Amino acid sequence: MTLIEILTGIDTWLETVDEYVVSDDNDKRNWNQDILAVLRADMPGGKRSLHIRNDVLSDVLNDEDQEVLQSNGLVPRRTEYRTRLGRTRQPTFVLLYDDLITSCNDDVDEANKVHQLESRIRTLRRELKIVRESRTTDDRLLELVHSVADASKVRKPVKPLKRPKRKNQNLAGWGTLFLSDLHWDEVVDPAQIEGLNEYNHEIAVERLQNTFSTSGDLLMNHMAGAYYDGLVVMLGGDMLSGNIHEELRRTNDAPITESVLTLADELTAGIKMLAKEFPRIYVPCVVGNHGRYDRKPLAKGRVQENYDWLVSQLVARNLRDVDNVDVHVSEATDLQFKLYNTTYRLTHGDQFRGGGGIGGKWPTLFRGDYRKRKRAEKTGGGYDILCMGHWHAYGSVEGLVVNGSLKGYDEYAYISNFDYEPPTQACWITHPEYGMTIHMPIYADRHRKSTNDTEYVFSG
Questions:
Q1: Across-strand partners of 396?
Q2: What is the 3-state secondary structure (H, E, C) of 101-125?
């Protein structure tokens, strides 16, 4: 593990748990208030050191990482610290944070600098082209924001549709397609991950179209004698790559303003296609963490200051004249809805932290689910199933569904030695009597073909 890889992992962790890190002298919280780390200028020359609680250290640094830091003189000689915060002390691991940053900068060779400059030049050229063609892209986007915000204040009520009567067919219930973690316009370089995956704008378009068509095909053409009351298309956040990391800003396939518009168009087209096959489409939407405007996560205005929210509002606007489609953009980070007697809660999943132990992500998710259920039950809003994305690893257990990603395996997953998973999105059926029943993950990288090598087609 190189120092640059270690620093990248630390910065990613700090960003994830930002609300639980004390980095301001005016922050009067103490360790008893769920603080995980302290970043303070307490070294000679005002250099910052990072104090990480020992009980969460394994989530950030493994034994090999700690040895590398110690061998490079980036850990103080006295390794057993009890860091004071407010009136409490806590055993911590101390890292010379600014010295680590300096060492990483020194390790960057001239070839990498040239590569970064070339990437930046290509990005600037793309941005200049977009600005020239559309003259004032930012002004257009600002107008869209204002118009969408005004339109979002009034939502016409949904008119329930009568259940279609079909001879010799049985009601399957509601289908669900869970779309999240598209990371639209992010670029994954196959050369950096041994060819395990590749991702860019063109591949994203193909995978998203495959996901829409494959889900419709599996539900409509491969469930013998079944018909549906409708289809839920969840938009679960991290729909865009975003600009929260400088490396993303440099390497994304398009400026964020262009990404917002192209993604909204693709989602609109896919939902319109499904609306021809299902009597009713319900689209619940929440935001993720990659779409936020600022690098630091917010508590107030967390949803509205997020490009995911804007994409969802544009989709709602584009579909407002499609009578059997209802788009519900949540103004909170969670959204709850009910299908028959089964209540679902949709969240992105970035509120939960941890996942580096032997049990992987599941202990962290179970704890987070427990806290949400406890709060929901106390306020009269209990739910049956929690649906989330963020973790880029498809899985389903009782009461919990975790979505995969459209992007698939990337450089961060590779250097972190995470398990490989192909680009996957979740799909299932909710039966009026039996609840959540059939799970059918959608593998987005290839369009399924029948035995006679002809593509599936819908009836409509």
A1: 401
A2: HHHHHHHCCHHHHHHHHHHHHHHHH
Give 180's pLDDT tier (boundaries 50, 70, 90): very high
Rounded Cα distance, 4 and 123, in Å: 23
Cβ(266)–Cβ(205) under 8 Å? yes
For residue 146, with 0-12 CB atoms within 10 Å meaning exposed, 13-18 middle and 19 or more buried, which class applies?
exposed
Question: 170-443, superfamily in CATH?
Answer: Metallo-dependent phosphatases (3.60.21.10)
Residues 6+ apart with CB under 8 A from 198: 188, 189, 190
Identify the top-confidence range among 4-18, 81-95, 267-281: 267-281
pTM of the model as a whole = 0.64
CA-closest candidate to residue 342, choices 232, 418, 252? 232
> Where do the structural domains in the chain lie, given as residue ranges?
3-106, 170-443
pLDDT at 201: 94
CB 241 within 8 Å of CB 228? no
What was the pLDDT predicted at 155? 44
Alpha carbon distance 294, 111 (integer Å): 30
More confident residue, 225 or 116: 225
Helix (H, G, I), strand (E, B) or coil at 411: helix
CA-nearest of 144, 154, 150 to 314 is: 144
Q: Is the pLDDT of residue 168 over 80?
A: no
Instruction: Compute the residue count for the chain.
Output: 460
Of the listed ranges 316-325, 350-359, 394-403, 435-444, the one predicted with least confidence: 350-359
CA distances from 439 to 375, 383, 395, 431 (A): 28, 19, 10, 12
Q: Is-contact 158 381, C-beta < 8 A? A: no
Degrees (nearest 5) of the Cα angle 219, 223, 224? 150
* Structure tokens that stand for 171 in this block: 């009601």
DSSP category for residue 276 = T
Say how far apart CA 383 and CA 6 lie, in whole Å. 39
Range 342-376 burial, b when 16+ CB lie within 10 A, else e: bbbbbbbbbbbbbbbeeebbeebbeebbeebbeeb
N- to C-terminal Cα separation, the chain = 54
